[in-house]
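STRUCTURE REQUEST FORM
Protein name: RecA family profile 1 domain-containing protein
Source organism: Zea mays
Requested output: structure tokens
Priority: standard
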Amino acid sequence: MANMLVSEMRLPLYLAHLLAARRLDTAKDVLSLPEVELMAILDAGLPTARAAIAHVSEAACPPCQTALSLLEERVRLGGGGRLATMLCGLDEALGGGIPTGKLTEVVGPSGIGKTQMAGRILVMRPTSLADFTKSLEEMKVTLLQHDVKLLIVDSVAALMSMENEKATAGFRQHPLRWSLSFLKSIAEFSRIPVVVTNQVRSQSNDDGYHFSFEVDRKDGSNCAERFDSHLVAALGIQWAHAVTVRLVFESHSGHRFIKVAKSPMSPAVAFPFAVESSGITLLSDESIDVTGPDITSIRCQGQNVLA
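Status: completed
Returned output:
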């Protein structure tokens, strides 16, 4: 609800005009300010500031609901539905297909077939993070106007990589947090599946040591193992925890595989697939059980790639 637009709230006209004039566009813009600071921005007294907070809070904060009422509302709105990928084995493992109202991530090395899968349906391909942010802000109206059934972003990791080259470590997480929050809100309130393709990136084993005191100098800090490199899924742990379903595309043993690495409705399983002119085709609808370290790893032509 933090991203709810003030212009969509039924506020008293004097408050709506005052907030719009001060560029306080979302609930977060208003509610994250202390009363004194809000008074200064609005150039108004304490009663007006408190009235603005009260009205925005009432409009943006969801009412108290029981678990049963939430379940009934979700069923009424078509929640819990699935959008079939037409890959029978994968759809069966996912309980019918890509879940609605959730974030689904497709991650894997370049050229393995992520875009071919994404290309089956509507794709948004922003060219910059600013373009992506603008597209997200306009997406809510677009979804309603065009009755969109699925949103795929291919790929937000590329945009974040370009942005990170220009940003400091402390600033990097802010655009990701905003985009992640907005994508989740689009999925939840539009009741559609949102799929985001993710890339892999190279990381050395020494990247885990952020400070000098974290390195144990007694075990031989110059050993070669510390500087061995491997690939990891881009966007980091914050993103990994936010997605509901993670589909990993990997290749080994002369085949490519789609692996259900994270899902609340399926164990870890994999399916061999091929990329053809018509798109992705499963070579078998029979799943292959994945256990142990293979669940959280990606293999690329015999090279172990950590997820």
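Reviewer notes: The chain has two domains: 11-60, 77-205+220-306. Residues 77-205+220-306 form a domain with the Rossmann fold fold (CATH 3.40.50.300).
Form closed.
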